[in-house]
Amino acid sequence: MAKSLPILVSKETYAKFDACIHCGMCLPACPTYLLTGDEADSPRGRIHYMKTAVDGRIEASAMVFEHLDRCLVCRACEPACPSGVEYHDLLEAVRPQVARVVLGRGRGLKNRWLEWMVRNVFPYPKRVAMSVLPLKVARAMGLGGVVERIARMLPSPLGQMAAMLPEGRVWGEALAGFTPAEGGHRGSVILLQGCIGSVVSKALNRACVRVLARNGFDVHLLASEPCCGAMAAHANDPEGAREFARQVVDALAGRDADYFISPIAGCGAQLKALGEVLQDVPGYAERAMRVAKRMRDITEFLAEVGIRPPEKSIERTVTYHDSCHLLNAQHVAAAPRQLLAMIPGLKVVKLEESDVCCGAAGTYNLSQPEMAGRLGERKAGHIVETGAAECVTANVGCQMQIEKSLRAAGRPMRVRHVVEVLAEAYGEGE
Ligand code: SF4
Ligand code: SF4
Q1: Domain final residue, candidates 240, 273, 303
Q2: Is 74 in the pocket of ligand 2 (CB under 6 A)?
Q3: Which secondary structure element, helix H or strand E, spans residue 237, and what is its range?
Q4: Does residue 219 have its Cβ closer than 6 Å to ligand 1?
Q5: Distance between CA atoms of 186 and 334, rounded to whole angstroms?
Q6: Shared domain check, 211 and 257
Q7: Closest-lying ligand to the alpha carbon of 75?
Q8: Which pLDDT band, with edges at 50, 70 and 90, does 282 fall under?
Q9: Interval between CA 78 and ligand 1 midpoint (Å)
Q10: Ligand 2 pocket check: which of 44, 48, 50 to mutate, most ligand atoms within 8 Å of Cβ?
């Protein structure tokens, strides 16, 4: 028998292993199993590895870590499971410990450079802005292609990042800290722009502000917005995720806005889970729950409160891709489609496998570029098959990953957020 391993989980978490009846109904829903056909890359296989590692019946080896690391945490296995296995809780409890055993103390990702970026750059908007400045300047000088070619020769994640960064539309001026409601006041919200989102998706954030104000909401932005902690969680750093969660609660708990709105599905999912992340932290658990209750994805919020009918007709055929963190973590499927259906002239055609991950998944496209590339290619193929002129989604990470995949497939196409299309239909520009 292999020597026992120091992988520890609480009694409550261990009981979740026992909920799995090994039926295999989750397998066809799992994107990594769809790609490899290997049981070890399926939810059932990963649950088996995790449980036997906790039981001390197998080593937390590099092979085990690789199969756990290939998990996108897209959570598509959860709605497919008849037994209600809370898979993500198991993975989040076990994978960071396996990473520590395999990679060493304080480590969560295989790639040291990416790990450094996740911990020291991505959660801080000013540092993100500095890191993309060379590409921004080069593109302004018409040298974007040269810089991207050089970046692709550098260590893998940097090249991937350069290929991911969207074209000119992302650059823009800073947004006003406050935008008043138009045409009758219905409430007030704080728009959370996201730490990377505040740098690379200014066009989207501007569209969100305009659409919210048009629909009667005062829109506030935080002068200094803490990271939600989603990237730390993805990078097997639960302590980091908890620290960011505390900062978010400190920033939001005392604010009197009716709702906190996120246009980024990954951030929204993490922020709705603040209560669970901080459940054992004295002085934070209650406040975190109250903040989480006021969190809404922007599409969910707009559908919930009801929007003013857009006036402008958009004669275009589009297709919609479900973001995993919106669909499987936040359980929001109908709202984005309802909003698109309200736009005069817009035709939405069905996307095959719209609920299969595109490969973005937080930092997955940087930490597992080969698997992410194959998922992106699969997604791009389905999008091209629809004949749509544009792909629409509700997550910045998906936008960047799908745009990159379509470019790589030689079929470049615009990928926009639902709210960007809605803003266009309100006559707020493209
Ligand atoms: S979270 Fe996604 S990738 Fe991971 S096991 Fe479940 S379906 Fe597969
Ligand atoms: S569907 Fe649920 S119960 Fe069945 S194998 Fe997958 S996780 Fe286990």
Answers
A1: 303
A2: no
A3: none
A4: no
A5: 23
A6: yes
A7: 1
A8: very high
A9: 8
A10: 44
How many domains are there within the chain? 4
Considering every ligand atom shown, identify the ligand nearest to the alpha carbon of residue 72 and give its number: 1
Could you read off the pLDDT of 139-196 as tens digits, one per residue? 677 766 666 666 666 555 656 666 666 665 445 677 889 999 999 999 999 999 999 8
> Do residue 227 and residue 326 come from a single domain?
no
Q: Is any atom of ligand 2 closer than 6 Å to the C-beta of 21?
A: yes
Domain that holds residue 258: 178-303
Residue 205 CA to residue 318 CA, distance in Å, equals 21
Task: Tell me if 87 CB under 6 Å of ligand 1.
Answer: yes
Q: In what order do the strands lie in the sheet with 259-262?
A: 178-179, 217-221, 187-191, 259-262, 295-297
Measured in whole angstroms, the distance separating CA 77 from the mean position of its chain's CA atoms is 17
**185 plus 299 within the same structural domain:** yes
For ligand 2, is residue 85 a contact (CB within 6 Å)? yes
375 with 403, same domain: the answer is yes
Q: Among candidates 26, 57, 51, 20, which has minimal Cα distance to 41? A: 26
In a domain, 430, yes or no: no
In a domain, 3, yes or no: no
Which ligand 1 atom is nearest residue 32's CA?
Answer: 3
Specify burial of residue 72 (Cβ count, 10 A radius: 0-12, 13-18, 19+).
buried
